[in-house]
Amino acid sequence: MSRSSGMNPRVVAATAAVLLLGATPAPTPTIPPGVGGLVNTIIRKVTGDITAPLNVDPNHVRGTVTYFRRFDLQIAMPLQTYKQIRLHQGTIINPRGATIAPGQTVDVRGTTNPDGSFNADEITIL
Questions:
Q1: Out of 33, 56, 100, 110, which could bridge 121 as a Cys pair, Cβ 3.0 to 4.6 Å?
Q2: What is the pLDDT of residue 119?
């Protein structure tokens, strides 16, 4: 009987073990001191910009104004959804002195009501 000219499985296993033992893990990236706060702020801003239009964050919504009258606001959001927003005496509108009008894109922070409407604490016109 003749042996095939293929590699010996024991040699292959031993070679793989030696290569794995000699491998070093990749270095862990670190953030320089003093930059962490800025990085966290940027991450919060970017994730807020991503999740707000999708109504993932219960305290933050973004959309296009379809209706506004005194204390009632409606915005159109992605996926053909609409959000009823209630303003109150202390609602802050940024920039200060600006008037909300249909067609504007707004970023709203506040709280969600059990009926699905939203109490606005701060509205920023984008």
A1: 110
A2: 93
Give per-residue pLDDT as tens, 92-116: 999 988 899 999 999 999 998 888 8
Q: In sequence order, which ranges of the chain are alpha helices (DSSP H)?
A: 9-22, 36-51
Give the pLDDT confidence of 43-84 residue by residue, as tens digits.
666 665 555 555 556 788 899 999 999 899 999 987 888 889
Q: Which long-range contacts (CB under 8 A, 24 or more apart) does 113-119 make?
A: 113/86, 116/83, 116/84, 117/83, 117/84, 117/85, 117/86, 118/61, 118/83, 118/84, 118/85, 118/86, 119/85, 119/86, 119/88
In 41-58, which positions are buried (b, 16+ CB within 10 angstroms) versus exposed (e)? eeeeeeeeeeebbebeee
Q: In the chain, what are the domain boundaries?
A: 36-125
